Amino acid sequence: MKGNNVMLICESNVIEDYLAESDEVDLSHLSIREKASEILAKSANEEEFVRQSYEFVRDEISHSWDIQSPRITRKASEVLYFKEGICYAKSNLLCALLRSGGIPAGFCYQRLTLGDTPDTGYCIHALNAVFLRPHQKWIRLDSRGNKAGVNAAFSVHEEKLAFPVRESYHETDYPQIYSQPHPKTIKALIQHTDCMTMCLHGLPAEL
User: Fold this and answer.
1) Which residues make beta-bridge pairs with 108?
2) Domain boundaries 9-201, CATH class
3) Per-residue three-class SS string for 108-137
């Protein structure tokens, strides 16, 4: 399965694994089911449901760093309730909404510089992969949230991610589509109590 910038590799060949529930992707939670149903009701087709779900998480759920919030959210239902989270949390919510609507979805990761340059160190950034049945392809979507210098968007044919990888900075696109959040990302969310401290000093630097 070819993405626009990277050859995507499914961790599992069983599509049902990308529809499954977990502690973080708590898609049967009433609030998740209600929000997914609300978006479905406004969507003319499957692709529109994916786009609207993505734009909801991107635009209506604040990135914790952008609002300088100390709160750490992890489960999809928590992210929806508090309407905030870092990329790990926001990807959990988008995955849960899509799976609740019957859309296979998974997790992808990038290794990026923590600041603008390599001397600031590195961190793992989370985004989602979604299987669009009408196109029979996986696409990556980054619901991190737009701001100055970041303009991610839904696109079927050309990736519009928040952070294009800069190979000269030793940044990395990991090709795997994981069926569940990577354990290192969940460990970071569980082990910390202050989100700002976690973002500065507690994010994994590699998978």
Assistant:
1) 127
2) alpha beta
3) EEEEEECCCCHHHCEEEEEEEEEEECCCCE
- pLDDT tens by residue, 130-176: 999 999 999 999 999 999 989 999 999 899 999 999 999 999 999 99
Rg (Cα) of the chain, in Å, rounded? 16
Contact, 48 vs 143, CB < 8 A?
Answer: no
| Token pair recorded at residue 106 | 């998974």
pTM across the whole model? 0.95
Structure tokens at 15: 């599509």
Phi, psi of 37 (to 5 degrees): -65, -40
14 contact partners, CB below 8 Å, separation of at least 6: none
Q: Report the run of H or E that residue 97 belongs to, with start and end.
A: helix 87-100
What residue has token string 């626009």? 4
